[in-house]
UniProtKB/TrEMBL annotation:
The keyword Cell membrane is annotated on this UniProt entry: yes
Keyword terms: Cell membrane, Membrane, Transmembrane, Transmembrane helix, Transport
GO CC term (a single one): plasma membrane
BP GO annotations: transmembrane transport
Record's protein name: Carbohydrate ABC transporter permease
Residues spanning the membrane: 26-47, 81-105, 117-137, 149-169, 194-216, 256-274
Broad class of the protein's primary localization: membrane
Length: 289
């Protein structure tokens, strides 16, 4: 009897485990389809004209119109907006990574009093709504004679990414053994040399995590971009440039979707390139401490 009961429990547990696996796989597939299909839909629309868009919205394009991309790039000025977005995004990302890495290292390894309190105060800035600072920030940028320049975009974007980036870096630096730093100091290495030669190579996952988060936040940001570029069309970025596809008689959906793909593709490439370190960063140092 006892053997039969144990066998019955084993069969039941196996059945529940198998059902859980099937359910998790089905849920994963449905989630993947939900995420991927809109991208596929936009990609297909980018090869259609308006007539085909309205008559065959869900089907494959009858003619693959690569000219929609050239129209978006040249006539829609997406090429000019792309250059602005690349310069602004790379400058802000690299600047925020460097400043945040230095700040996180100082708070973690340089015995600064009340380091956790300082970190908490920095994190509080993330909860300030953007609408509360846009007007004073715009006024300040004008008073600094930065209106109409790329710096009007770069400096705010850089500053907004610093609090959370410092948090990520500090948690990673906390996991680095202090003995390595003491050994480097004993060998006569200065603090700057320790930071760049010893510490940074050990926290590549943190760098990748911060770069991906900051790139995504900056590349597609619209609200401040629309405000800051209202005084000069020369510094408009990709999200703002999409508005130019809204013509007098409606939207050219093919070129509009092509412009959206031009915005999405760099995000996908950055994530694919850095995904190994990004995932490692989310599952290791970023959750310690």
């Amino acid at each position: 009897m006892n053997i039969e009961k144990k066998q019955g429990k084993t069969v039941t547990a196996y059945s529940h485990s198998r059902s859980a696996k099937i359910f998790s796989r089905v849920l994963t597939v449905l989630t993947a389809v939900t995420v991927v299909y809109p991208l596929i839909f936009i990609a297909l629309v980018s090869f259609k004209n308006n007539q085909e868009f309205y008559s065959n919205i869900w089907g494959l394009p009858q003619i693959w119109r690569w000219s929609n991309y050239s129209y978006a790039w040249i006539s829609g000025k997406i090429g000019t907006y792309s250059i602005n977005s690349i310069v602004i995004t790379l400058s802000a990302v690299l600047g925020s990574v460097l400043i945040a890495a230095l700040g996180g290292y100082a708070l973690s390894k340089m015995c600064i009093p009340k380091a956790e309190l300082i970190l908490s105060i920095l994190m509080m800035f993330n909860f300030i709504p953007g609408v509360a600072i846009y007007i004073p920030l715009y006024t300040q940028m004008n008073s600094m004679k930065l209106s109409g320049t790329l710096w009007m975009m770069i400096l705010p974007y850089l500053a907004w990414q610093i609090p959370f980036s410092i948090y990520i870096f500090k948690k990673f630096f906390d996991s680095v053994p202090s003995e390595l730093i003491e050994a480097a100091r004993a060998d006569g290495c200065g603090e700057i040399g320790i930071f760049f030669k010893v510490i940074l190579p050990l926290v590549r996952p943190a760098i990748a995590t911060v770069m991906v988060f900051n790139f995504i936040n900056i590349w597609g940001e619209y609200m401040w971009a629309s405000i800051a570029t209202s005084s000069s069309a020369a510094i408009q970025t990709l999200p703002v440039g999409l508005l130019y596809f809204r013509g007098q008689y409606g939207i050219e959906w093919g070129p509009f979707a092509a412009a959206i793909m031009i915005i999405i593709i760099p995000l996908m490439l950055v994530f694919i390139y850095l995904q190994k370190y990004f995932i490692q960063g989310l599952t290791s140092g970023a959750v310690k401490g």
